[in-house]
């Protein structure tokens, strides 16, 4: 049995998370901005089926992460980037990106992003804690990623790829912009072959949480990301 949390209740010690299902820590609470910021600051995130489950909170181990410099841009992706006309923006279409990520996909992912989740994260975006990166081609979104930025950590929540290689292009752009955005760690939550092929690595819980404590202050503040539009990948800052 996992503990039931009332709104405002402290989260349990992450070492108490279940191993089956991996990382399930607690249920209940709410999706208020303060709750989400407290959760992410400790590496805890919500993931649940809004139609059939209460809010579920997770802290899986090992944890899938990227160090920005280690993001691997394959030769085929490099060719695609060179031969494609596209632009990169930040926070240009946050809510639209969430709606795109919420659409059902062939792999079954995406539908967990409920209306309540969208409302909660759009609220965080308006406060300066949630951000998006968009790849544009022919006036439309070709790829994107969104997540929460606290301190030097970007907690990647979801990527979307309406066009070929769109999500890979978004990750490549995030790598380029990481120094300017003061991102030294990207949380990818749970491993999959796509992430591992692009340079993600797995950390055990003590290592991961030590990195969080080094990179997130006790009161992480909001940020405004630049409104620049880059033609192609941004130059290395």
pLDDT < 50 runs, ≥5 residues: none
Question: Helical residue percent?
Answer: 25-40%
Assembly status: single chain
Inertia-based shape:
globular
Class by alpha and beta content: alpha+beta
Please state the CA-atom Rg, rounded to the nearest Å: 17 Å
Largest sheet, spatial ordering of strands: 11-5-10-9-8-7-6-12
Percentage of β-strand residues: 15-25%
Quick one: biggest sheet?
A: 8 strands, mixed
In round numbers, the mean pLDDT is: 93
Query: What is the number of helices?
Result: 7
Measured between the Cα atoms of the first and last residue, the distance is 48 Å
Q: How many strands?
A: 12
Q: What is the string of SSEs from the N terminus onward?
A: EEHEEEHEHHEEEHEHEHE
Describe this structure in words.
The protein has 237 residues and is of the alpha+beta class. It is 30% helix and 24% strand. It is built from seven helices and twelve strands. The protein has helices at residues 33-41, 75-83, 94-102, 115-127, 166-181, 193-197, 205-215; strands at residues 4-5, 24-28, 45-46, 56-58, 63-66, 87-90, 130-137, 140-150, 153-160, 185-189, 201-203, 229-231. Strands 11-5-10-9-8-7-6-12 form an eight-stranded mixed beta sheet, sandwiched between helices. The relative contact order is 0.18. The model has no long low-confidence stretch (mean pLDDT 93).
SSE topology:
Elements: E1 4-5, E2 24-28, H1 33-41, E3 45-46, E4 56-58, E5 63-66, H2 75-83, E6 87-90, H3 94-102, H4 115-127, E7 130-137, E8 140-150, E9 153-160, H5 166-181, E10 185-189, H6 193-197, E11 201-203, H7 205-215, E12 229-231
Parallel strand pairs: 1-2, 9-10
Antiparallel strand pairs: 2-4, 3-4, 5-10, 5-11, 6-7, 6-12, 7-8, 8-9
């Amino acid at each position: 049995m996992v503990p039931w949390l009332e709104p405002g209740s402290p989260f349990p010690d992450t070492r108490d998370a279940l191993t089956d299902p991996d990382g399930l820590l607690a249920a209940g609470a709410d999706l208020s901005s303060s709750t989400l910021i407290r959760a992410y600051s400790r590496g805890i995130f919500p993931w649940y089926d809004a139609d059939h489950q209460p809010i579920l909170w997770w802290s899986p181990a090992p944890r899938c992460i990227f160090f920005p410099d280690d993001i691997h841009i394959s030769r085929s992706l490099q060719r695609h980037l060179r031969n494609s006309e596209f632009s990169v923006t930040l926070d240009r279409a946050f809510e639209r990106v969430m709606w795109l990520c919420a659409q059902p996909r062939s792999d079954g992912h995406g539908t967990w992003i409920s209306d309540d989740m969208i409302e909660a994260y759009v609220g965080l975006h308006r406060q300066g804690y949630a951000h998006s990166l968009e790849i544009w081609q022919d006036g439309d979104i070709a790829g994107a990623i969104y997540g929460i930025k606290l301190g030097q950590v970007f907690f990647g929540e979801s990527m979307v790829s309406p066009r070929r290689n769109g999500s890979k292009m978004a990750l490549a752009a995030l790598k380029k912009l990481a120094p300017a955005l003061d991102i030294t760690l990207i949380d990818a939550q749970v491993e999959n072959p796509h992430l591992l092929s692009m340079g993600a690595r797995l950390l055990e819980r003590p290592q991961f949480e030590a990195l969080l404590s080094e990179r997130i202050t006790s009161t992480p503040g909001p940020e405004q990301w630049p409104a620049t539009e880059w033609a192609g990948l941004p130059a290395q800052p």
